[in-house]
Design a protein that fits this description.
The protein has 293 residues and is an alpha+beta fold.
Length: 293
């Protein structure tokens, strides 16, 4: 039994993993009624959602927390935990949004020790409620992970009860592209699209012998310019940095020029990011035109 994740004290005691005396001591932090975790544990969104669900028997984890538990990389770090509690009226809990909603058969599933809204229901709920770009990131992430076509959401039964959300949903589906491999990739794509830059996502590159070299996050095929998103881990992890360098060299050997995209570009300086990308595309096209003369 993993005591570094939120757990029910009564279950851990019955399993022989600990004792009530130890639970009351410094080795564990009490999170709520019969809910504990190893002392000093910093809970991420999944951990916070698990703790909240354990403290509210019968609750279903929904929203961003459900998406995170289901393994989709689409939730902001500071996302609020959402619990679907049916028609019950419960006391408010700090850091938790209680949603009074009745879920239909097939709209919930057990996953990683808790009950969550199904992938399709999670996609639908978030697509109808969060900001447009973030909603597209959710549909991209869960759609890719569970091979769900975004267009299928348009006929989702719950849409009949949420006409206003349905209008938002149609716009989200129109912008969705499940080829995106992360939330930052989706947000970068939408930022570029609004500026009139329309690269091909996840383009396969092969060498002159037809051997697969890799996929570019974004590619302008007419001028052989590619852009790759590099999160903070790409800079901090030496092994990842070396893989990135080798990958860039492979693309370069096939005649491609590669530009990195950073988290600052996507989240802090989108206008500067667009200006830089437009300048790079224009310069590369002039370069390629000069070579063909």
């Amino acid at each position: 039994m993993d005591l570094s994740q939120p757990f029910r004290g009564s279950v851990a005691v019955r399993a022989g993993a600990t004792t009530w005396r130890r639970l009351d001591g410094p080795a564990f932090d009490r999170l709520g009624y019969d809910t504990y975790v190893a002392a000093g544990t910093v809970l991420d969104l999944r951990g916070r959602a698990t703790a909240a669900a354990l403290a509210v028997p019968g609750a279903v984890v929904g929203g961003y927390a459900a998406a995170d538990i289901l393994g989709a990389d689409c939730a902001p770090r500071d996302a609020t935990v959402e619990l679907v509690v049916g028609r019950r009226r419960l006391r408010a809990r700090e850091g938790v949004r209680l949603r009074q909603d009745v879920l239909a058969e097939g709209e919930t599933m057990p996953f990683d020790g808790v009950t969550v809204t199904s992938p399709r229901r999670t996609m639908f709920d978030l697509a109808c409620t969060v900001d447009h770009d973030e909603a597209v990131a959710v549909v991209d992430g869960l759609g890719r992970r569970f091979r769900i076509a975004p267009e299928s959401l348009l006929s989702y039964p719950a849409a009949r009860d949420n006409p206003r959300g349905g209008r938002r949903l149609a716009a989200v589906v129109a912008d969705a592209d499940t080829r995106a491999e992360s939330r930052p990739e989706t947000l970068a794509r939408l930022t570029m699209r609004r500026a009139g830059l329309t690269p091909t996502p996840q383009l396969e590159v092969r060498d002159i012998w037809g051997v697969f070299v890799g996929r570019l996050d974004f590619a302008w095929e007419d001028c052989r310019l590619g852009a790759e998103y590099q999160g903070d881990q790409h800079r901090a992890d030496r092994e990842q940095w070396l893989r990135d360098a080798a990958r860039t060299a492979d693309f370069t050997s096939c005649g491609w020029s590669i530009i990195p995209i950073t988290s600052d570009d996507v989240f802090r300086r989108p206008a500067e990011f667009v200006r830089r990308m437009r300048a790079a595309v224009d310069a590369r096209r002039r370069e390629m035109a000069g070579r063909s003369r």
